[in-house]
Structures are given as structure tokens and as C-alpha cells.
């Protein structure tokens, strides 16, 4: 059975499970609940750290999927009654990178899972730690603290192995039941930095340890990789890692990457964490580490849907310009068909945003903007799909200088997207030598974000506006 909702303001609600019981491990009749977010990068913490330390970030450090995952971006609609619900809404507003009025179609994620009763599946864990020379000092200290917290989140249902690597990999603890927590903590404490960086060596040994356990649908298998992602021995190319991670994902062995070190290779990790069942986090400081493990751990190991596909057909006179928040897709890429490999439980309700450009001076009332379909599989393998529409529902023609939102929450998602667009282009200009142009755009970005924060009276958005102001100050030419 497929349920469909086509509502004013381009609202569409998608249900998992075809009206039947929720997947094993999830309560079936809970109203409200936690959120859900696409896999891939779950934060923009590397860019935040660089700005805090007075460094101008690389444009690729500003990840839309990471920023969206850090914010709660709920869309209005009927109560979510299944383990995954998707809604859509539309905004028409100026894009900071082009100064053109564009159409933004948001897909929002939520879940009915009750945090009070939710319990994750038992885990087979392979903990793989980079001990190469670049991890000297603060990075290794941060990794040891994070690894201790991870061990603290495991229980008697779980199994554990510990692998370290430099230019070779070593299994310190083979896959075993979690019976002697103190011994595992002592093994972590003995880690010392040395050698080069063969990430593939560590991954291969970690996956081998997971494979030593018999298959069991009632359990989850996950490799946790702690690294600065700077391989210099063995395979170092993105494509080689993607093949390895995809092969293991197909065998039910998923990956979470925890990044450390300000020299972290964000681009490599963003790609490998876009694979089905994968995600990534940057551990910028002790507070971030506590948040990830104390609040998010049970959710980050719990995918609830796979292969979410969005097919979007623009109305006549419109075309797709970009997609934001899609793991593994650069923000400027235009896609008529979009795929999110995995959707995980989360404290926040996440988003993906499609951007369409248009021709003409004004948008008439009732103008169709786009149509399409959403489909995915639950983790139990059940398919589900629905239609979506995007339409301008204003009562007057919308001029090129005006903006309109089918729901107020879309205003925040568009504001965050403009932050990403403005920051990326400003940093690109700065690194390219156009210091004046970089500073001017960064100032505009900060002002736009601050205006949206006041309009919405949104404290998290005010914090982002302050970050944007700090970036603008960093990009100011000498003497200004």
C-alpha cells in the first residue's frame, strides 16, 4: 500500500513500511520522536576550528550536508507515524553567489522513534586508530579520549577489536566479547605515535576482524576509523578507498570516520562517508567529542533507510542549478535525479535542498515550479514512494526582488545555504588573490545571515551569523 499526500505549499509526506509495523527494534505507535538525517559528513566543525584559530578555510571545508545536520530543520505536516517521514516545502529567494532570485525545494527528514524507548542493535565493532607521525600531540590525545568514550558506550551485547596502523597495521585486540573493559582501555592508553600512514592497511585488518564474526541480521557491524586522513603509504587515491568501502558496505560492514587534526583531509573523508551505511564526524575539541559520543552514538550507528531517490522535473522555464546537503555531491552539481545512500537517526531533523533557476520578470500566482517523486527502501528492504509538487501559492505576482516561502522553516534552510554559498566563494576569492572581493562578499554573507536570524528569532542561526562575521574579519585586507 502506498500513501500519497499532495498539499498546498508543495507539502508531501512519505511513510516507510507501507502502513505496517516498524522495523525490528523500533516502537510502532509512537507520536513525535527524534529526527533523521542523510549519511555522510555530520558537521562543519573543521571550518569552525580553522576560523577560531585564525586560518582561512578551504572552500571545500564548508559542507552543506554537515551544516544542515548540525541544525534542526523541521517542516510542517501531519504527525510522523513511521520510522522515517519525508516532507517537502519551497522557498523563492535571492542566492548570494549569483544575486539572482532562485527556487529552493527542501526535502525534510523526521522519525517517530521515541528516544525514551529506543535501543540500538548489538554491535560488532572494529576500532581502527591512526598512530602515524602526523597524529603526534593533540590529535592522538583527542583520539584516545574519543576511543575511551566509545568503549564506554558499548555493553555486554557487543563485540570489539582494536587495530592500529602507521605504515603497517597491527591487531592489538582480536574480535571478542566485551568482557574486560579495563583491558581495552589499557590497550588504548598504550598507543604511541610512529611511522607513515597506510590507511588501507588499517581498514583491511579492521574489516577482516569484523568478518571473523558469523553473519547475523539481528546485529550491526561497523568499523570506526580515527584518522587525519592523510595517507602517504599504500593506496592514497579517493577511487581506491571508495572501491574498498563500497565492497565492504555490500557485505554489511559499515563505516564511521572520526576526523582529528587541523590538517584533516576533508575532501577524502566526505567522499568515502557518502557510501551506503557510512557517515563522518570531525572531533574539533573535547566538547564536540562529548557531544558525539554521549548524545549521538546510538543514533549514528542506526541507519533507518537506504537509497533515497528524488527525481525532480522543473516546470517550463526553470532548470536545476544545484543540490545542497547530498553526501558526496559537490554543492554546484546539478542533478535531475538525486540519491541519498543512507538515512540515519539523529537528534535533528535534516534536509536536502534542490535549487532551480528561472527566466522571466515575475512569478505569477499558482505558477508550477517543479514536480517529481521520492522513493527509498527501509532497512528491512521494503520499498516506498510518493509524488511531490512545488508551486508558488502567493496571491500576487512575485517580483525578482521579493522572496516567498511556503513555510517559515524553509527560510532558515535557505539562509544556511546562502551562508555556505557566500563563504565558499569568498574563501575561493581570498585564496585566489582577490582580497577585496572576498571581504565584501563575506560581509554581505554575515549581514544576510544576521537578518534571517532576527526575522526568525533563531539562536542557532545567530551563532552562525557570528561565525560569518569572524570569517569576514579574517578576510579583511590589511589596513581595513
- Spans of 5+ residues with little confidence (pLDDT < 50)? 1-31
Cα shape: globular
The beta-strand count equals 20
Portion in helices = 25-40%
Major beta-sheet overview: 7 strands, mixed
Q: Roughly what is the average pLDDT, rounded to an integer?
A: 88
Overall tally of domains: 2
C-alpha termini separation: 63 Å
Widest β-sheet, arrangement of strands: 3-11-10-9-6-7-8
Structural class: alpha+beta
Query: What percent of residues are in strands?
Result: 25-35%
Describe what you observe in this structure:
The protein is an alpha+beta fold. The protein is built from twelve helices and 20 strands. The strands form four sheets. The chain has a seven-stranded mixed β-sheet, with helices on both faces. Strands 1, 4, 5, 13, 15 and 20 form a six-stranded antiparallel β-sheet that branches. Strand 10, helix 7 and strand 11 form a beta-alpha-beta unit.
Amino acid at each position: 500500500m502506498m500513501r500519497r499526500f499532495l498539499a498546498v505549499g508543495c507539502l508531501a509526506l512519505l511513510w516507510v513500511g507501507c502502513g505496517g509495523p516498524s522495523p525490528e527494534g523500533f516502537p510502532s505507535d509512537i507520536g513525535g520522536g527524534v529526527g533523521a538525517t542523510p549519511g555522510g559528513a555530520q558537521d562543519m566543525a573543521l571550518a569552525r576550528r580553522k576560523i577560531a584559530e585564525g586560518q582561512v578555510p578551504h572552500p571545500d571545508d564548508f559542507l552543506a550536508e554537515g551544516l544542515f545536520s548540525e541544525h534542526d530543520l523541521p517542516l510542517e505536516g501531519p504527525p510522523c507515524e513511521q520510522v522515517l517521514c519525508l516532507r517537502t516545502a519551497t522557498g523563492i529567494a535571492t542566492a548570494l553567489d549569483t544575486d539572482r532570485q532562485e527556487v529552493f525545494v527542501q526535502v525534510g527528514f523526521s522519525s517517530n522513534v521515541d528516544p525514551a524507548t529506543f535501543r540500538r542493535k548489538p554491535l560488532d565493532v572494529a576500532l581502527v586508530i591512526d598512530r602515524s607521525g602526523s597524529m603526534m600531540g593533540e590529535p592522538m590525545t583527542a583520539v584516545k579520549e574519543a576511543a575511551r568514550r566509545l568503549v564506554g558506550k558499548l555493553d555486554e551485547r557487543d563485540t570489539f577489536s582494536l587495530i592500529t596502523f602507521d605504515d603497517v597495521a597491527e591487531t592489538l585486540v582480536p574480535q571478542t566479547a566485551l568482557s574486560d573493559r579495563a583491558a581495552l582501555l589499557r590497550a588504548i592508553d598504550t598507543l604511541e605515535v610512529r611511522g607513515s600512514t597506510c590507511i588501507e592497511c588499517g581498514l583491511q585488518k579492521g574489516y577482516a576482524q569484523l568478518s571473523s564474526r558469523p553473519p547475523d541480521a539481528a546485529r550491526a557491524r561497523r568499523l570506526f576509523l580515527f584518522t587525519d586522513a592523510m595517507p602517504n603509504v599504500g593506496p592514497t587515491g579517493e577511487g581506491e578507498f571508495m572501491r574498498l568501502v563500497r565492497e565492504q558496505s555490500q557485505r554489511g560492514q559499515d563505516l564511521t570516520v572520526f576526523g582529528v587534526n587541523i590538517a584533516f583531509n576533508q575532501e577524502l573523508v566526505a567522499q568515502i562517508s557518502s557510501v551506503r551505511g557510512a557517515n563522518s564526524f570531525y572531533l574539533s575539541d573535547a566538547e564536540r567529542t562529548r557531544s558525539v559520543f554521549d548524545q549521538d552514538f546510538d543514533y549514528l550507528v542506526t541507519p533507518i533507510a537506504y537509497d533515497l531517490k528524488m527525481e525532480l522535473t522543473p516546470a517550463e522555464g526553470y532548470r536545476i542549478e544545484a543540490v545542497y546537503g547530498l553526501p558526496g555531491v559537490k554543492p554546484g552539481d546539478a542533478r535531475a535525479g538525486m540519491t541519498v545512500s543512507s538515512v540515519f537517526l539523529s537528534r535533528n531533523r535534516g534536509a536536502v535542498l534542490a535549487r532551480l533557476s528561472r527566466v522571466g520578470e515575475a512569478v505569477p500566482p499558482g505558477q508550477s515550479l517543479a514536480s517529481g517523486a521520492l522513493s527509498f527502501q527501509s532497512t528491512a528492504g521494503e520499498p516506498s514512494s510518493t509524488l511531490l509538487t512545488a508551486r508558488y501559492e502567493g496571491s500576487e505576482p512575485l517580483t525578482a526582488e521579493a522572496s516567498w516561502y511556503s513555510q517559515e522553516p524553509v527560510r532558515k534552510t535557505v539562509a544556511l545555504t546562502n551562508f555556505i554559498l557566500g563563504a565558499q566563494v569568498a574563501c575561493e576569492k581570498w585564496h585566489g588573490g582577490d582580497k577585496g572581493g572576498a571581504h565584501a562578499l563575506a560581509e554581505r554573507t554575515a549581514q544576510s545571515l544576521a537578518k534571517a536570524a532576527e526575522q526568525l528569532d533563531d539562536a542557532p542561526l545567530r551563532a552562525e551569523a557570528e561565525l560569518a562575521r569572524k570569517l569576514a574579519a579574517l578576510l579583511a585586507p590589511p589596513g581595513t
